[in-house]
Amino acid sequence: MGPISEFFSIQNTEYGGRACFSNTALARGTVILDADECLGESISYEFRKEICHFCFLYNYGKKMKWRIGAFEMEQLEPGTNWKGFRGAGLWFCSQQCRDAFLRQEHVVELIQGYENLLHALQITQKSGSPQKTDEQKLNSFLISSELIDRQWEQLQENWIKHVLRLKPNKRILQCPHITEETYCCARSVCTSLFQLKHLDSTSLTKRSFDVLQSNELSKISRFPILLSFQIAVYQVLYILLPPSLHSQLSVPLFRHIMGTEYGNAFGIWQAGESIDDREYLGYRLIPQASFFNHSCDPNIDKIANGRKMSFILNRDVQPGTQLCIAYNCNLKLPVADRRHVMKENWFFDCLCEKCSSELQTIHKCLF
Ligand SMILES: C[S@@+](CC[C@H](N)C(=O)[O-])C[C@H]1O[C@@H](n2cnc3c(N)ncnc32)[C@H](O)[C@@H]1O
């Protein structure tokens, strides 16, 4: 994959896949990585108007003032009729953030994708509630990788072939009911498809994304209902993406996006509150920053500043030291509770140095 930073390299560990190790002795305060290239983000539906879509500012529930209107769209793409444009479900904290968002090359494709999804959500919301899903039944399936593969094969063999046989104007009828969750997830995949389409294939983000660890099986095994949810998101995108992004959508890429976002995404949190009190606002995927393992005694602090995420050493380290961050967990909890949080939220048994040594101590006391 090539180097990510001059300060560290990625190596295998015995306990938890790959991790980052310092190349030299490093001093406390060293910024070992500044990352601002996001491959996708998802803002929770209830907070969609309260978070700046560009810098992720959240101002204690205040609605963001800036939107994109038909006027801005006409400037971006003159000659297209933008009457009836709904703003693509985007809110910004300032004109600067809105303009920075609009300055992205080819951004009209992305806005068109968001707008289609928003339009479809609004139609579904007007048409009343969907048939109730039998969550209990869906969650009782015994999941294996073969079963997941089979479901996707069936989608390709049956549903996609059926849709392709229909006239384009009839395909919309095959779109599943869109919930707020489907909408948010589809939007996030839409962003990833857009970014991946326009990223240089040798860029660090692209190279990192390609080799991210997928947690598809562990997550779906824990919540089998997610398999049908993900298939529904795929169907929504298949029907609603504009042609420029539709051409990017394939089952393997979609599965990689969905499988990797779960274990690698960074939460977007309300700033300035304690870990137990702050609001969870959404998440974003920053592939080059996704090779840090978790430690319950992390030597790296992660600081979010607008779109940028900085990773800063909180102590001096020797060459070859593993550089770890803390995933979202209250580190003051006892070892069993911390490990429970990691298992429930991140689907792994934490084997960081602190947990290993505390577990050994408990073991020695008991036996
Ligand atoms: C964000 S990724 C970190 C990079 C990952 N190790 C890799 O090879 O791509 C998170 C995954 O790393 C592993 N991991 C991270 N911290 C760990 C820990 N303290 N104990 C065990 N596994 C860990 C888990 O498999 C987790 O799902």
Automatic annotation (TrEMBL):
Coiled-coil stretches noted in the UniProt entry, renumbered to this chain: none
InterPro entries found in the cross-reference section: H3K4_H4K5_MeTrfase, SET_dom, SET_dom_sf
GO cellular component, one term: nucleus
Boundaries of every SET domain copy: 2-328
UniProt-listed PANTHER family: HISTONE-LYSINE N-METHYLTRANSFERASE SMYD, POTENTIAL PROTEIN LYSINE METHYLTRANSFERASE SET6
Protein name, per record: ZYBA0S09-04082g1_1
Taxonomic source organism: Zygosaccharomyces bailii (strain CLIB 213 / ATCC 58445 / CBS 680 / BCRC 21525 / NBRC 1098 / NCYC 1416 / NRRL Y-2227)
